[in-house]
Amino acid sequence: MGLAARERNLRAARKAGVEAVPVGGLRALPPDTPVLVVPSDVAIEPGIAAALPVGSPAVRAVRCPTAPGAMLVFGPAGALAQGEPAVGGVFVAPGLAWGLATPEDRAEAARGLLRATQKPTDGVVSRHLNRPLSRFVSRHLLRLGLRANHATAMAGLIGLGAAVLCATPGPVAFAFAGLLFHLASAWDGVDGEMARVTFSSSAFGAWLDTAVDNATYLLCLAGVLVGFATEDPGPLAIGVAALAGAGVPLLLGYLLRFVRRHGTGGSMVFIDRTVARAAADDGGAALAVARVAFLGLRRDVFALVFALLALTGTRAVVPAAVLAGVVLAALTFAVKHRALVAAAHALRAEDARRAMREQSGPVSRAA
Predict the structure, then answer these.
(1) What is each CA distance from 212 to 100, 225, 227, 276, 352, in whole angstroms?
(2) What is the spatial distance between Cα 140 and Cα 138, in angstroms, rounded to a whole number?
């Protein structure tokens, strides 16, 4: 993952809210301090701190089914300071420890740790099409010593290339533009995976990722409109394209403002979650239809649809589809504003409670 095992384990300990001390410092700790001894050839996940049976006086071996050769020991500092304490049992921690003793172990650990970065909000396209590609890219970029912001910059360059091809006349250029746009969508997951697996997420990185995403959308739409204008369309088609070109930045600005005022973080996925929650709470047909339609506005689904449309070589359908999406989104937020705000506040409260639970694990010490 581009980090020494010790450095990654120290970051995992900080993420879990536990203190890391050298093995030689065990005798200086109060005898009943719970301690997890982590060998140098094992990588741990932050969740292991909350999973361990804190308060048990027995010393236990900690094993993980995915790392059968990894040997960790957990127990009171006083017992562990004796050197070779009697082990009173085995505690199984699946997916929370990974052996690194052999090249095969390290490769399996890299794959497993990257799989664990998948978001619960990922849609079908992301899970089955985009994530396998993004995890492959993330693994190799980390091996090269690159970081999440480097991946974000690369995604921006891919998006810029897609925009240039969108503006280039001809069906072949448009087809390649669609493929590049979908690649940018898949690549969009790389920076998040790299940040989560190395515990290097930051507010700036999240902001930069969102900015690059929105810039890619706007530049590619502008490119499509420029390329569309070269095909000498009729007045109606020009009107549709003009409305789509004006509506998208206005809608994006409103949705970003909505997320900042009522949501958590800066991800536009919160919009999709809000519509789904409002549909479940409201029970009405309008929001139920909007929930299904908004799935098509997700970045992963939209990018795939755009790529498929681009392969037909017909540009005119893109502005029409974009305008239909803008009108649908605008009507949904205008007519069901109260229900959507209530759903957003409920989600924000749930996210806050979840974050508190994750941070309230037992405070222990890791050696």
Answers:
(1) 35, 20, 22, 25, 27
(2) 6
Query: What count of other Cβ atoms lies within 10 Å of the Cβ of residue 27?
Result: 11
All domains of the chain in start order, with CATH: 5-114 (no CATH), 121-358 (1.20.120.1760)
Q: The whole model's pTM is what?
A: 0.79
Ranges 178-187, 192-201, 287-296: which has the least confidence: 287-296
Whether the pLDDT of residue 198 is over 60: the answer is yes
Cα-Cα-Cα-Cα torsion 151, 157, 158, 163, nearest 10 degrees, comes to: 150
Instruction: Give the burial string for 320-346 (b: 16+ CB within 10 Å, else e).
Output: ebbbebbebbeebbeebeebbbbbbee
249, 250, 283, 277: which is closest to 263 by C-alpha?
Answer: 277
pLDDT at 194 over 90: yes
Q: Is 114 exposed, middle or buried (0-12, 13-18, 19+ CB in 10 A)?
A: buried
Q: Is the Cα torsion angle 279, 130, 265, 220 positive or negative in sign? A: negative
Q: Is the pLDDT of residue 360 over 60?
A: no
DSSP code at position 331: H
How many Å apart are CA 83 and CA 56, to the nearest integer?
19
Residue 117 CA to residue 67 CA, distance in Å, equals 18
Which pLDDT band holds residue 361 (cuts at 50, 70, 90)? very low
CA distance linking residue 44 with residue 258, whole number of Å: 38
Tell me the pLDDT band of 366, cut-offs 50, 70 and 90: very low
- What type of residue sits at position 56? S
CA distance 10 to 141: 22
Percent of the chain with pLDDT strictly greater than 70? 95
Tell me the three state secondary structure of residue 61: strand
Over residues 211-216, mean pLDDT: 89
Residues 336/252, Cβ–Cβ less than 8 Å:
no
Average pLDDT for 168-186: 92
